[in-house]
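Lab notebook: predicted structure, single chain.

Context: the supervisor wants predicted structures on file for every construct in the current expression panel, including those that have not yet been purified. This is the next one on the list. No modifications to the sequence; it matches the entry in the shared construct table.
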Amino acid sequence: MQIPHILQLRTERRISHAFLMAVATFPKPFIITDAAINIRPTLEDKRDIVQNAIDLMHMIKEDKQVRVAVLSAVETVTSAIPTTLDAALSKMADRGQITNAIVDGLLAFDNAISLFAAEAKGI
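Prediction complete. Output recorded below exactly as produced.
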């Protein structure tokens, strides 16, 4: 069955999942994105996923600077861990291919949410 054109979900960007988390012990809400929708996203797909999350956060917190952490298991690029190649997303933001946020990474999750953890690792 085809969905009528007016009801279609597709836009110019790839569809993605976003989960807004508010943790009592953490001062700011954050979004975990695309835990289940895109199985093997390309770098271009990931750009869309990041931009979708940025746009969502701006809708929720209009007056705040949005920050994006590009996560991986380690903080340095290695061909042994394919997700480390996502560091290119930070450069894409520097060049205006991702907009309206500060994009940084590679970061492990602890470094993304804890200044103490980042400083302990020299980040």
